[in-house]
Fold these 4 entries.
Entry 1:
Amino acid sequence: MSMSVIRSVVTALGAACVIALATAPAVLAAPKKTHLLAMGGCPPWKVIEGDPEATRQMKESCQNDVNAIVAGFKKALALDDANIMTRVDEQATAQGVRKAFVELDEREKSGDRVIIYMNFHGGNIDANYNGYDIEDEVLAMYTAEEPKDFRHATINGDWLTMKAVRDLTNEIEAEEIVLIFEVCEVAAGYKNFRYNFSRRTQRDWKGREAVIFTSRGDQAATFNEDGTLALFTELFSKGLETAKGGNLRDIFEQAAIDTHRSRRATCMKEENLENLFDNRWVYLDACTQLPSAFDPYGLLDDIHVGGDTIASRWHELKDRKPPQKTPARDEDPFAWAKDYMGEQTSGAVNAAPPMQMPAMQPAGPYYPY
């Protein structure tokens, strides 16, 4: 059996998981600045039993990943070195990460673009957030020693829940924010961004945010076969460096499907069938990785190679206010609900006949809670 193949799988499981317009669109002025904050933590207590070489490669992978993502974005978006921040290992403790967010907030302005890349071990576990016991995706910030109690690590602040990371992000007032999480089971944190209304409704933020999850809520974020780089990071970074045109959505989608196909191909090799394909638990966790993106306002589609933001409907609509409708005196405000439930509407003049209950529909798209 190929040691490089086995090492990539062991690393993924034992290390990466602690737990259309007819005319050409007009180009808008690029944001004032594009800032990149790239962070990763590979702690010394994470080892591959019986394979010191694999352990060494794993320990160095966070620096490799940060270097790769910085090189990729510098090439694709023509970043200025002065607007790039990195934090790796000892610099990427919870305290170091919080300070980096504060420094980033001080640097960026309301019209800027911000890209944040985070590469840590993690998983969906019991945790504590602002005194409340919850289950959430947790990012294992760098620590010199392995916490004896993972939940307590979120209480004392050594590790950060996804809710805590979201709160830090909410302080960023940039026009465009792209988050990339290279973490196991990380799409378990999707709900923290899907239902994050505080920034837009309470603070009247007019920007856009896109979040890239390199694994679904029940999948490992795997390494390449030689264990030197996270697989998606390697493919996405190469896409950024070699792109001759297109946008971040194009580059992401190609890297995402290539990540999935690469993992499937590795697991289907003859020498791996017994240990991987025939082991359902291992296969579902390590062999099906498929990155996803939460991008409700089409930000990734509008950030083009070279750094320009291309005009889209978003820029026409973002400052519009929804029409305000005052119900008629005799209108039942709950008429829609009663109609849906098949009840006769009361109070409304010329009420529509009751609606039939909808027939059972096939399951919708997969939402990675």
Entry 2:
Amino acid sequence: MDHYIFFSKSNWHEAPRLRHQVAGLLRSFGGNIHFFQKPSFVWWPGAREEISRIDGDLLIGRTRQLIHHQLRVFSFLRWLNALVEKRSIRAVLGEGISKNSVVVNFNYDYYFLREIFPDNRIVTIINDDFVAQSRFFSGRHAKKSLGKTCASSDVILTVSYPLMRQASEWCSPELFFPWADVEYREPALSSNRNAVLLWAHIDERVDFELVRQAVVMRPSVIFYLVGPQSISARNEIEKFASAENVVVVPSAKLDDLPLDRFFAAIIPYKKNVADIEAVTMSNKSLQLMARGLPIVAHGMPNFYDHRAIVKANDAGDFLAGLDYFRENFSDLQASIGNLVSDNQPQNRFSFFRSLISRIDREGKNV
């Protein structure tokens, strides 16, 4: 059985992100997972290293850190924190680290992993623009950490073209998009499709003024806003939630929604937000397309190019995209089906294992 050691700044029981999806993918193909979730701070009361078995093939661990990654602006602070984290990881794993284990790293600042795993294959997956998210000194400290992490990894995978260009300064990254959760399901072709779906964690990233304009300008379209809402998002939605063509659902699984009513999915994010503009394929895109839904995206100029995806630059583009998909929903299904078929779990697993085989052939980056 293949063994994978994950490092992440997310907790296992958080809303699923790519790190959870990759772990689930590898488990589904027989992998044994050791998932290190978000470290606790050494100065928290009761903070300690811990490990627990969630399932037979899934172990959840937690280590400790000294300083929040946004605050490690000086090299001395990064060195000091790395010292604490290395000792903490070793304390959890002990001496029995198999060199056959594959390290899957989602942390841009874990350049010290090679010191802990000198004989292991290390795959780093970059799925956020950590430099753009940095709050101090234009992210120069984050860029240094990212560069060192890339240089010490055997393979770098990125989830978008902008992140690929960013990492290319230090290595030769490869694209690794999310995948569909099911095979393509051809939707019933009905003239009653009169709704669009926003299915997401709804927070300040959403351009609520754009959504409000669309609600007003397309009264014959029903807008479903589905997903957990931040407090600020809830306040924004309340401004137009009373409209007759708005349906708000706190949370729901995709297949529990009235899929036969939707003619498109929408991703209406704000413009000129660096970490949003870095997205080429969001985690849920192919899940939505697997149910036959084309996508209207806003604020995402680097989103994937496909005839069933409209990249809107303003409200006019957004509304035109809705109109186009409502009119051409059935004509787009063949191209959607082909895209989904090329992005199944088996495709991603085969690609991932081919990378491991390549490392074995070419040697590790030591």
Entry 3:
Amino acid sequence: MASPAQQLLGLRSLNGRVEAFGEDVARTRAFSNKFSMGRDLVSLDGSFEWDEVTHSRSLAPVVGRDSPFPLRQELQTINRRSSVADIKESKVISAERLYENREAGTLRPNAKAVIEMELRDLVNRIGATYEYMCAHTAQGTLTVSAANIPGTSMPFTITYSPNTFTAAASWATAGTGILSSEVPSLKIDYEQTCGLSPAQAIIGSTVEGYFLSNTQVTEYLHRAVGEKILTTAGKLRGPMFDGLAIGGLTWEITEGGYVPDGGSFTRYLAETDRGILLPADSELDQVLGEAKAHGYVPAQAMGPAESAADLVRPAPQAGWYAYATLAGPDHPTGVRIYVGYRGLPVLLRPAAVNVFETVS
């Protein structure tokens, strides 16, 4: 039977909680959430391949009943290769916090709460880095370096060619025909470029402000939700704003960002006049991908080893992983917890991601 320490800090216990925390974090972050709905690309060794696909937009021919089947070329693909990103951190939790005033033979009642609080902090930090990567991938260029992600020791850049669109008239102008001209043009451009139907857009509060001050949009909102709700701007945020389907699209508003150590708040979608147009969630597996690989756990990690000869072994699942060990000579009575994520967001069909500018 597993001891209380193994139940709390054992390999499967930690990995189960970290994976659950990671899924919670992704659901609350606009870009990570969308990539999590994409296609899973699992790697066994940390490297992986994927195909960028260009779909045919032409018509199939009409032929006679006894005619041979015309031969069509395969889809055009560009084979790409990369390695997953390793995002990981660790913490030492002192013995004083874990074991002080404990009951005989058991961990103190709040030890689990202490560990889960520290685990969540690491997961949130790693999740913030991954959201940064997802947001920049969706915009066409992901550059990872110590300049934009402090502490990075493995810099890399991955570029794509998503579709782009620039408004004919500034959405910041109250009289611009956002509903009559701009959004219809945006949707037409999207469908003509990639062949899918646009369904949703991710924007920030600046573009939301353009909506709420636009004459056409406010007239529509008066009819849709009424003047009383409209004048209470805060009530239009989140699910209610999403449900309005302005111009036939769902608009997801994100003000997500991060605060570098010693710095100021920085948005993931730094270009405040920009938005990202996507197809419906049910079609995201054609457009977005999420590569994952297994992390590795040393044999001295707490919890049962597969065999005494194992020096390292794969984590139970790809993507998120965690383990714990004694803290080591610098902290002889503490516990060190390790949390990591091995993964990378990718664009499988860049033409089906539209990066649009609302101010020309």
Entry 4:
Amino acid sequence: MLGATSSTLLYCFVMIVCVMLAHAVTSSKKIGGKIWLFLIITILSLLAGFRSENVGLDTITYNWHFQMILDGNAKELAVMVRESSYVYISEFLLKIFKTPQALFIIYAFITNGLIIARFYTLRDKASLPVMVFAYISTQYFFTFNIMRQFVTVAIVFYATKFLFNKEYFRYVLCCIVSTSFHITGILGLVILVLYYFIYNYETGQKRKNVWLVVACIPIAIAGGIFLLSKYKDYFTGAVHFDFSPILALKMLILAIYVYREQRYRKWADVSLRAKMDKENLVVENTMPYVYIVGLVATMLGSFINYADRVGIYFMMFEAVFIGYVCKNSSCSSYKVAYLTILLYVFLSTVFSLGGRLQYAVFWS
């Protein structure tokens, strides 16, 4: 196992290299850019995939799952976990690769591959280096712990590519497939509702939103009851109060940004508004509101243990939103504020090494 200082330096080195490679992607031709992109995915995936069972809170549990499958106890494990499909997918892969570590590497490549690939598709709207920086700072280290849920998060996040192209069936299908690893993948449907709501608003079909809200209320209640019934043991007796100044600061900055942008749009020249690309407007307005939902959902973690994990699906848009602001906003204060917060979050994580992040490779 690496020492604390060596682990911190390793994570800092990986961050610097990945951000530099992301910059190289944006300044390279198409083929060369994709090579650098693949290097980013490979570095992040191998770092996560080669970790030992002592790195990350849940890694030892996943290692136990895979060992049970290898020992021929897949059926018993399928009864124990909530998503038996995850067990049978893992069993199929283990029949090919024969070792638990192979699954850590495969799931790491799926997770980081889909997330970084989605960033790449959004590079025209948001800064790719900033998105990579934000992802590593705020979400990447969670993949060491809640690996199975992050496979689901990655599938849903990449599928928003279809959503933003109005390929609703493909998006919903991806959300359903994602539940094979974690049932909370159905939360991706909330992003669909938000997108459709904003689309109706921007295209002058506000009446449809009334019916949309009416239809979604019973569905939301039923979905909430279903998820609570699945995960009630996580929440029982876990009420507390843990105020997060960083989360509150993010909420404040985002509120100011949305207020100023809406105020500008309200007084913008009507002829200019008429010429704006409605599709791009819908996509760009969806990002901050999905991010708002993510912040509010994450804030639940200040009161109930594990409740913040509900917000991960929406918080993936934090990186996209900050990348968008850094690329398009004329106000440098937003850029400085967000980049400072990201740097603080990253450094506090890699220096404290909380969540058992002191690094070791699996063969050590």
